[in-house]
Amino acid sequence: MLLSTRAARCAALMAEPDELYPERILYPRNTRALPKTPVVGGQPIEEETCMALRALVFGSCALPPKAEWARTGLTLRPYGQSLAFGLRAPRNTTRGLVTAVQAVMLKHFLFKCDRQEFRTGPEALLKPPYDRQIEVLTSAISEIIWRCAGGFSVSTCPNVVSNTVPKAVVVLPQETPYIQHSVQYFQDGLTETLHLFEFNSLEDLEIFIKRYLYLFHDEGGPGAKLLLYSAVLSRGLSKVRNDLEDPKASILGGCTEEGPISIVIFVLTGRASPHLHNGVLHVGDENTYAVPQWGVLIRSEVGFLVHEGDGDVSKQLGSRLKTPSLPIWVTLCLGHHGVLFNTNRELLRNYHAERRFEVQYFTCGGSHATLTVDTRANETSGTSDAATMETTDIAATPLEKLIRSKWQDALIQWNGTPVM
Q1: Domain named Deubiquitinating enzyme MINDY-3/4 conserved: which ranges (predicted)?
Q2: Left (φ > 0), alpha (ψ -120 to 50) or beta: where does 80 sit?
Q3: Cα–Cα–Cα angle for 307, 5, 127, nearest 5°?
Q4: In Å, what is the CA distance from 9 to each residue of 24, 65, 91, 397, 400?
Q5: Is 28 domain-assigned?
Q6: CA–CA separation, 227 vs 53, rounded Å?
Q7: Secondary element (H or E) of residue 170
């Protein structure tokens, strides 16, 4: 009975609300709207850049791109309520990117607040007012673009030491298309209308993003696509191609239902690497030259955890993602993206804090659960009962197995009923 209950909880948590209740209205609207300032200035996108950008992201500029990227915004949930810290998004290939943005937002909600806000406690921090929601969304978008431009670390450009000032690029749509429909280029209504804006300081970038935040935020708008395009152009087309390690590869080529891992890594580290290991590995055999595979070059503030089935060993997750500097992880569990987090900044710095603690799991589909993780089970004996742990692991839900990929042999308890 216990196993079936836990399994049912996990299955319901992984399912999307519209899959459980088809007649249910999925997303309530916010009660406040952002001001819609007309886009002024910028440089119209050049034909060469437009075609190269579309091809690098979607694989071809002669075919229509994935339609969901033109109608998925970075949309906030109603302010001041439960889950007000969260973004809401449908389940499609944008989900990985939106979830990674969500993780960066949680960093700002929990750990980048002033002292007065911090004194209110984590529960209040996770039910932010409208102004705080807007501030955090603005900061998260700006931070991601700035990181992709190399604004936080020279490590975003392996083997290159440069003193040049970072140049962030933001793209916003206008009404005039600068490339006509042809056999070589299929108009998508957005890419060919873009204006490019460049920034050399994070402060100026944040001011600009806040002014035009509605273009990123509006539900049914192209916010996810604008952010991805801005990140790619800030990183540089040639550098992103090098990150992918295949001149013919595209970011969304052959991606899974919720988007490729490389987009998550791009948002978290500023490099669109398809690899999760630390540093660089040289892969080859006696018949071929060893080819370098660039993974994660520096410890990330926000981490990444993966569980894709008991037999999957293909993803070598390094410690720089498994043990980030803050207790927030983007998760990929059997094809579903979510965020796992703890509200104690010192969790990963203090051994005693990791003995027994709570973690929260959230998806941008609206699922939320709280679990208690207890790592003290084998402290007294110093050894584990292999048979007992094997039985426990077999009975574990996929989410529990994902958590144990970080805290091996931990006892995990579900607290209450998950919100869906």
Answers
A1: 54-416
A2: left
A3: 70
A4: 20, 36, 19, 9, 11
A5: no
A6: 13
A7: strand 168-173
Q: What is the DSSP letter of 51?
A: H
Assign 294 to helix, strand or coil.
strand
Domain count, the chain: 1
- Tokens representing 13? 């948590």
Asked if residue 35 belongs to a domain, the reply is no
Residue whose C-alpha is closest to residue 363's, from 27, 86, 153, 168: 86
Burial annotation 218-235 (CB, 10 A radius, 16+ → b, else e) = bbebbbbbbbbbbbbbbb
Amino acid sitting at position 1: M
Query: CA-CA distance, 39 to 99, in Å (whole number)?
Result: 27
Instruction: Look at residue 233 and tell me if it is in a domain.
Output: yes
Cβ atoms within 10 A of the Cβ of 319, count?
Answer: 12
User: What radius of gyration, in Å, describes the C-alpha atoms of the chain?
Assistant: 22
Mean pLDDT of residues grouped by 10 in the chain (420 residues)? 68 64 46 87 97 96 94 96 94 97 98 72 92 97 97 56 81 96 96 97 97 96 98 97 92 89 96 93 74 89 90 74 97 96 94 93 96 82 51 74 94 87
CA dihedral over 5, 6, 11, 15, signed as positive or negative = positive
The range of the structural domain enclosing residue 253 comes to 5-13+40-419
Describe the strand order of the beta sheet including 168-173 as a list of residue ranges: 43-44, 194-199, 168-173
Report yes or no on 327 lying in a domain: yes
Q: Can you state the angle between helices 130-148 and 223-235, rounded to 10 degrees? A: 30
Instruction: With H, G, I as helix, E, B as strand and everything else as coil, classify residue 268.
Output: helix
Residue found under tokens 């089970």: 377
b/e map 151-170, b = 16+ CB within 10 Å: bbeeebbbeeeeeeebebbb
Three-class secondary structure of residue 278 per DSSP: strand
Q: HSE-up of 330 (CA within 13 Å, CB side)?
A: 32
| Contact between residue 340 and residue 403 where contact means Cβ atoms under 8 Å apart | yes
Q: DSSP 3-state assignment of 209?
A: helix
The predicted structure's pLDDT at residue 124: 92
Whole-number pLDDT of residue 12? 72
Q: Which of 125, 120, 66, 137 is nearest to 95 (CA)?
A: 66
- Tell me which DSSP letter residue 154 carries: G
Which amino acid is it at 293? Q
